[in-house]
């Protein structure tokens, strides 16, 4: 996931592209889902970039619920 702390949308695209290249080079796969684990707000570009532009199947924003986490242990 790219940095969202006061970055320009071009930086978001560049950081995401770099991350996807790394995953492709190292694991020979393409991410299909995004999870922003600890969001403190996000820009409108975030959802658009990860959904429409990257074609992710799903995007998840927020921490996992403590009850759900306990069930998964």
What labels would you give this structure?
73 residues, mainly alpha, two-stranded parallel ribbon, 11% strand, globular
Describe this structure in words.
This protein has 73 residues and is mainly α. It has one domain. 49% of the residues lie in helices and 11% in strands. It contains three helices and two strands. Strands 1-2 form a two-stranded parallel sheet. α2 links the parallel β1 and β2.
Count of DSSP-assigned helices? 3
**Termini gap:** 25 Å
- Write down the Rg: 14 Å
> Can you summarize the main beta sheet?
2 strands, parallel
Strand element count: 2
Organism: Trifolium medium
GO molecular function: alpha-mannosidase activity
Pfam families: Glyco_hydro_38N
Protein name: Lysosomal alpha-mannosidase-like
Brief overview:
With 73 residues, the protein is mainly alpha-helical. The chain has three helices and two strands; from the N terminus they run H-E-H-E-H.
Present the secondary structure layout.
Layout (H helix, E strand, L loop, with lengths): L8 H19 L5 E4 L7 H10 L4 E4 L4 H7 L1
Parallel strand pairs: 1-2
């Amino acid at each position: 996931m790219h940095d969202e702390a006061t970055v320009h949308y071009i930086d978001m695209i560049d950081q995401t592209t770099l991350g996807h290249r790394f995953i492709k080079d190292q694991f020979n796969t393409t991410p299909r889902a995004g999870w922003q684990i600890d969001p403190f707000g996000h820009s409108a570009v975030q959802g658009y970039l990860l959904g429409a532009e990257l074609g992710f199947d799903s995007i998840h924003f927020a921490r996992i619920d403590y009850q759900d986490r306990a069930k998964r242990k």
